[in-house]
Amino acid sequence: MPEGFDSMDLKDLNVLFITIDCFRVDHAGWMYEKSWHLTPYLNEISRKSVIFKNAISAGSSTPASFPALITSTYPLMYSDYPRISSIRKSIAEVLRENGYRTGAFHSNPYLSRSYKYNRGFDIFEDHIKKEKDANETGKASVIEKTKLKMYHVKKDIHSRFKGTDLPYERASTINNDFYSFLNKGTGKFFAWLHYMDAHHPVIPPQDFCTYSKKDLSSIDKIYRGIHPASDSEIKKIRELYAASIKYIDSEIGNLFEFLKEKNEWDNTVVIITADHGEEFMEHGDFSHKAKMYDELIHVPLMIRIPKLGYRMEIDEPIGTINIAPTVSDMVGIGNISEFTGKSMLPYMERNGETVSEKNEGVISETLTMGGKVTLSMETGKYLISYRTKRYKYIFNFETSVAEGYDLVKDPYERHNIFYEERDLFDEHVSAIEKHMYWEKRSRNATIGGEKLKKIKLPPRRN
After folding, report:
1. How many Å apart are CA 321 and CA 67, to the nearest integer?
2. CA atoms within a 13 Å half-sphere pointing along the CA-CB vector of 451
3. Residue 101 CA: distances (Å) to CA of 123, 155, 204, 288
4. Helices 62-71 and 323-330 sit at what angle, rounded to 10 degrees?
5. Residue 114: what are its φ and ψ, rounded to 5°?
6. Cβ(59)–Cβ(276) under 8 Å?
7. Are the C-beta atoms of residues 35 and 29 closer than 8 Å to each other?
8. What is the pLDDT of residues 143-178, one digit of tens each?
9. Most exposed residue of 64, 80, 140, 142, measured as fewest CB within 10 angstroms of its CB?
10. Is 449 inside a domain boundary?
């Protein structure tokens, strides 16, 4: 067993869980040399961390990805989606029951009290006014809907008029929330910080990138579909995004320095990942719409362990649904019956070697309606993928379109080979069918107002 993975050594360590909205894996400098300059602080800790080179999100949007991150359950396996009802158990609840003080700090309305993401946290700061009806009932209240509407209105306004308040809090504010939490208590802690600075509108501090009001107005029109993007505009969008990643990395550096000043750095496991990525016209759009391509679901994942003295890389496909079970396993709590994922500790204990002969794939799923992401289980239809190390299969129940990609020969997913090489995807089709019927039994409901049917595929080629 590599040094640093004895659970007796880890059970009393703090756990810092950092999630970054819209963080593309190709902007993680510790994985892609071309982006090394963007993430110097994260690059440094990667030298003594576990790097998961093929981490796959459970969905391509915040509502679809976070149930897996926080509760190790698939988003659509229960009828409470997109909320976190009591049938799911959060990692915060698990750790609080085992002596951790817990805090969460973010400014994403889809992760608010109204969606019950506060469960298990002693301190929960989502920068949304705490209203009784939204806080206690968990229903889709008028307050909640108004907050979400204003979030999107502020996004549009800020894109057009520099100086208007951002629809989210800066990473520095989220850090300050955490600093206050740490200063006010003692004992081992679990803290979840979610940064929004890489999310549209992507407006980094001027110290990190120069831009004009005209730039922001033009980008806003592109995101709203008013006019197509020119090459120069795409370049500017990418510049702003890269600068925002660099800003987030600098604030993470400040966060690490704070932990060192408080003598907590050597007592803290740090997990860094993303809910999903971001598209820059690779498949015809910007943002993160109802799609399952790798620019959206292949995410960075790194676990820094104080006693690990080297960089360990794990190449097997790993779902983010496995993060919560890994945390509970690492700190000595063990298996949690409500968790669907599996601990990744066996990979670490074997120094990144394959645990089993079978190369299991990763499921990602969301709901789509009219080609857009929807949160309605009554009207939405499945969009689902199964990704192994080499192949990915995608099926859209709204359009009945199947897609298959060889990720070695075609890493950018430009050539759909499913209809000509269907035999390559038999395992993938079967895995999705089994998953969907299992989910249907879990939630005892239907999606799209109809019973789940067997996937209709073209006949095999002779």
Report:
1. 8
2. 3
3. 9, 34, 32, 34
4. 20
5. -60, -25
6. yes
7. yes
8. 454 454 544 444 444 434 344 467 889 999 999 999
9. 142
10. no
Tell how strand 381-387 and strand 362-369 pair up: antiparallel
Average pLDDT over residues 306-329: 94
- The DSSP output letter for 28 is -
| CA 314 – CA 300 distance, rounded (Å) | 12
- Whether 256 and 383 map to the same domain: the answer is no
pLDDT band at 261 (very low <50, low <70, confident <90, very high): very high
The burial of 420, by beta-carbon neighbours within 10 Å (0-12 exposed, 13-18 middle, 19 or more buried), is given as exposed
Measure the CA–CA gap between 100 and 123, rounded to whole angstroms. Answer: 12
- Mind giving me the DSSP string for 102-158? EEEE---GGGSGGGTTTTT-SEEE-SS---HHHHHH-S--HHHHHHHHHHHHHHHHH
CATH classification at residue 97: 3.40.720.10
Round to the nearest angstrom and report the end-to-end CA distance of the chain: 50
Q: Please say if the pLDDT value at position 359 is more than 90.
A: no
Give 196-251 pLDDT, tens digit per residue.
Answer: 999 888 788 888 877 767 777 677 666 666 667 677 777 888 888 999 999 999 99
- Sole residue written with tokens 């926080």: 70
Do residues 339 and 404 both lie within one domain? no
Say which residue the tokens 């204990």 belong to.
349
Which contacts qualify for 292-295: CB closer than 8 Å, 24 or more apart? Answer: 292/60, 292/364, 292/366, 292/383, 292/384, 292/385, 292/392, 292/394, 293/413, 294/25, 294/392, 294/407, 294/411, 294/412, 294/413, 295/24, 295/26
DSSP letter for 367, please. E
* Boundary residue ending a domain (290, 323, 349): 349
The phi-psi region of residue 302 (left if phi > 0; otherwise alpha if psi is between -120 and 50; otherwise beta) is beta
Q: Let me know whether 195 and 56 are in one domain.
A: yes
Q: What are the two backbone dihedrals, phi and then psi, of residue 377, each rounded to the nearest 5 degrees?
A: -80, -10
Q: Taking a C-beta distance cutoff of 8 angstroms, is the pair 122, 102 a contact?
A: yes
**In the predicted structure, residue 1 carries a pLDDT above the cut 70:** no
pLDDT-derived band at 295 (thresholds 50, 70, 90) equals very high
